[in-house]
Amino acid sequence: DTGVSQDPRHKITKRGQNVTFRCDPISEHNRLYWYRQTLGQGPEFLTYFQNEAQLEKSRLLSDRFSAERPKGSFSTLEIQRTEQGDSAMYLCASSSKDGRQPQHFGDGTRLSIL
Amino acid sequence: SQKIEQNSEALNIQEGKTATLTCNYTNYSPAYLQWYRQDPGRGPVFLLLIRENEKEKRKERLKVTFDTTLKQSLFHITASQPADSATYLCALDEGNTGFQKLVFGTGTRLLVSP
Question: Fewer beta carbons within 10 angstroms: which end of chain A, N or C?
Fold first, then answer.
């Protein structure tokens, strides 16, 4: 399978714990995006990487959220001191350098905060 | 304020009929618009992209129109099948960011009955 891969698919944790998600994009894609999706809503943009550089962060991304893409390949999204409101599906997408090419999404990590 | 509106009510149609889904937007000037399909528990899957200078785009049983005057896109599925049942999301590029910063509608759920 050469699509976008996300791990884990599901994460259940207690409030206050830290969690980390991983995304492996399509190998030749240099652009990587993180989104958050809650029930009944469309995905909301969180942050964007071009290669290893994080070029934009949404206001939705509080100080408790941090994302990295250290070698310009896989990316991690960490949430510290999780809160109930962090419960959502976290989606990763990648695209090629051509800005008009569509984004390809993984199947997400569903986070549930107890 | 900027808004993307899709019919939040589910669309129920019979197999073989044409499904038409609507996406309206305000206070955006997108260079292009995309449609995605999303199944429960899965990430969005890209279907079609239409540029501002294209009135209509087709792919197999799918057709998309884009009217920048009305600020509206219509998504049609002809000869619909039960397998077409899913949530359909429209997304546009927020623009002026130097990268593809997608803003999604809330999606319309399509149910095709045999």
Answer: N
**CB of B102 closer than 8 Å to CB of B1:** no
Note whether A15 and A114 are within 8 A (CB). yes
Residue found by looking up tokens 């000037």 in the block: B29
Q: Is B55 on the interface with A (CB under 8 A)?
A: no
d(CA B87, CA B36): 8
**Closest to B89 (Cβ–Cβ): which among A42, A93, A102?**
A42
For chain A, 114 residues long, give each residue's pLDDT as a single digit of tens.
Answer: 579 999 999 999 999 999 999 999 999 899 999 999 999 999 999 999 999 999 989 988 889 999 999 988 999 999 999 999 999 999 999 998 776 788 999 999 999 999
> For residue B61, which of B41, B39, B37, B30 has the smallest C-alpha distance?
B37
Q: Which two tokens stand for residue B8?
A: 């939040």
Report B:81-110 residues touching A (Cβ under 8 A): 89, 91, 97-107
Across the interface, do A105 and B104 touch by the CB < 8 Å criterion? no
pLDDT single digits (tens) B65-96 = 999 999 999 999 999 999 999 999 999 987 66
Measured CA to CA, the distance from residue A19 to residue A7 in angstroms comes to 12
